[in-house]
Amino acid sequence: MKVLNYIHGEFIEPESDHWMDNLSPSTGDVIGSIPLSDERDVGNAVSAAVAALPQWSGLEPLERAGWLEKIADCLESKFEEIAYLESLDTGKPISLSRSVDAKRSVSNFRFFSELIRNLDEEVFEMEDATNIVKLKPVGVGALITPWNLPLYLLSWKVAPAIGMGNTVVCKPSEMTPLTADLLMKVVDEVGLPPGVVNLVHGDGVAGSSLTGHSDVDLVSFTGGTETGSKVALSASPKFKKLSLELGGKNASIVFSDCDMEKTVEGVTRAAFLNQGQVCLCGSRILVEDSIYDEFVELFVDSVESMVIGDPMNDSTQLGALISKEHLKKVEGYISLAIEEGGEILTGGAPCIPKELSEGNWLAPTVVAGLDPDSRCSTEEIFGPVVTIHRFEGEARAVEIANNTRYGLAGSVWTSDLEKGERVAGMIHTGMVWVNTWLHRDLRVPFGGVKDSGIGREGGRWSLGFFSEPLNVCLKHE
Ligand code: NDP
User: Fold this and answer.
1) Nearest alpha carbon to residue 155 among 119, 112, 188
2) How far is the CA of 406 from the centre of ligand 1 (A)?
3) d(CA 36, CA 405)
4) Whose C-alpha lies nearest to ligand 1, atom 45?
5) pLDDT at 352 over 90
6) Cα(463)–Cα(159) distance, rounded to whole angstroms?
7) Strand partners, 276
């Protein structure tokens, strides 16, 4: 499957005619080729977005909401295709691609369509004047997305960005181009005006030319913390509006009064969904001393019962890791865990389904006995490896949870909701779930603190980020 750039409503080859292979994570086979775009392609895409801006930003919000709805309908008609391509490209189980990726990609467009349709201007009355707050488009947006939730995250940015009247250039991860390509086909099929949505494929060269381009007014980036800091540097000379959704090292705090069965199930899901390759994954499990042994036994049983294998099988719960390089990085952390004095309770080695021996496979791995300050316990591994720790008392749980450079999310497991809310309030992150995980209402803010990023997206926070407020003050007679 060869994908092309999408610029000014046309699918075109890169100026350089340089390409790279797209590899299947589960088999290692070449499944397609991707343009290696450079600054010329980025320049063409940005010019198309600049040219489309006056007409698109001049539409009424209701008209733009109508376009989002059309895109949602068209995406929905391709639901199975989205799920298939996402599993092919990422190695994730098809059941997950259906229930999370495909479903959310459609609902992102529907949700923002509805939100924009119902958006009222804020009005503040003074004794002698009326203030109106108008939300104006920012201009041209650069939307950069990672490989773990490709269309889910791209649609999360494209929908509010164009809904608020901006035009955009997208740059998906070079490892997962297929559903971004499908979105461009959808945009083309519904007849969106040329230049409103453009896309360049490629590696960091394309990404950095895009974020540094002088006609780009806004950058929305989801990816790793180190890349995020490069993006911030390249956006800063022109004071571009910037949102960074970066890494995480999230704690799942298990109190002795939790519902054991539901907690084991929830903590297992939080640890290993998408092979642990979700920024929100609960990769540090903190368990209250009095139930530690019982919890660990049940948790390890639960992890060992997960079905690993061909992503296209309906019963598969764990698929392959994204790439050989990433697998090596994750395995490096397992070696480090042993050096740091950890004990591998389960996993720790490649697990190779016979028919898929060239893929990037790793058994879900649980490490105990590490110091909560150790590198494995505080650095983002972004794979199916979790560390498990004992604690005594709320204060110590919070101290361990906060002891990392990241501050994205966390979860608390207790039958005492007051305690859950109290502890959640002390965790220094952008999101905390109590007795659940990744339970998302699209109206609420999403984002992190510390090295997990800056800014929030989601609901009206997305509309705020993708717009500039203009205060018009009308003096009364
Ligand atoms: P990367 O940071 O490597 O890449 C993210 C995107 O940025 C890719 O499209 C990448 O292109 C591009 N890119 C690379 N270099 C530059 C540059 N200098 N300027 C602009 N863009 C560039 O992240 P991964 O794709 O490896 O994704 C994994 C990371 O994403 C994890 O750390 C994870 O925690 C984080 N993440 C955060 C989320 C959140 O909401 N907080 C959600 C999901 C993931 P290329 O593919 O060529 O490298």
Assistant:
1) 112
2) 16
3) 33
4) 203
5) no
6) 10
7) none
The Cα 383–Cα 322 span in angstroms is: 9
Q: Which helix (H) or strand (E) holds 386?
A: strand 385-391
Phi, psi of 199 (to 5 degrees): -145, 135
Distance CA 295, CA 286 (A): 11
Longest dimension (CA), the chain: 81
What is the spatial distance between Cα 423 and Cα 427, in angstroms, rounded to a whole number? 7
What is the C-alpha separation between 120 and 401, in angstroms, rounded? 40
Per-residue burial over 14-49, b = 16 or more CB atoms within 10 Å of its CB, e = otherwise = bbeeebbebbbbbbbeebbbbbbbbbebbbbbbbbb
* pLDDT, the chain, mean: 97
Nearest C-alpha neighbor of 367 from the set 392, 349, 391: 349
pLDDT digits (tens, 9 = 90+) for 403-444: 999 999 999 999 999 999 999 999 999 999 999 999 999 999
Could you tell me the domains of the chain?
5-246+452-475 (3.40.605.10), 251-441 (3.40.309.10)
The pair of structure tokens assigned to 31 is 């499944």
Q: Which amino acid is at 117?
A: R
Sign of CA dihedral 347, 349, 353, 358: positive
Comparing CA positions, the residue from 272, 278, 311, 308 lying closest to residue 25 is 311
The yes-or-no answer on residue 245 being catalytic is yes
- Does residue 466 carry a pLDDT above 90? yes
> From the CB of 231, is ligand 1 less than 6 Å away?
yes
Q: How far apart are CA 312 and CA 97, in angstroms?
A: 10
Which region, left, alpha or beta, applies to residue 444 given φ > 0 means left and ψ of -120 to 50 means alpha? Answer: beta
148 CA from centroid of ligand 1 (Å): 9
CA gap 320, 332 in Å, rounded: 17
- Tell me the helices (H) and strands (E) count for the chain, helix number first: 16, 22
Checking if the pLDDT of 204 tops 90, the result is no
pLDDT value, residue 417: 98
Across 163-186, average pLDDT: 98
pLDDT tens, 296-314?
Answer: 999 999 999 999 999 999 9
329 lines ligand 1 (CB under 6 A): no
Looking at 74, 170, 258, 279, which residue is catalytic?
279
Best CA proximity match to 255, nearest among 289, 227, 211: 289
Q: Kindly tell me the burial class for residue 190, based on how many C-beta atoms sit within 10 Å of its own C-beta (0-12, 13-18, 19 or more).
A: middle
Q: Look up tokens 């000014």; give the residue.
A: 8
CB atoms within 10 A of CB 325: 11
